[in-house]
Amino acid sequence: NALLTKLLGVSLEKPGAELADLAAELDREGSGRQLRTEIVDRVLEAKLSKMPLLADRLKYLVECWRGCDDVRRDSHRYAKPVLDQLLPVQQMLSNYAGLSVSCAEVFGLETAPTSVAAETLRSLWDKQGLPWTFLVALAEGVEEQTAELFGPLLADACARLKGRTLADTRSERVGWISMVCDKKRGGSPKLARLLASLPAFRPQGGPQAPNAMLAMMAGGSSRPP
Question: Which of 74, 104, 146, 151 could form a disulfide with 109 if both were Cys (CB 3.0 to 4.6 A apart)?
Answer without folding.
Answer: 104
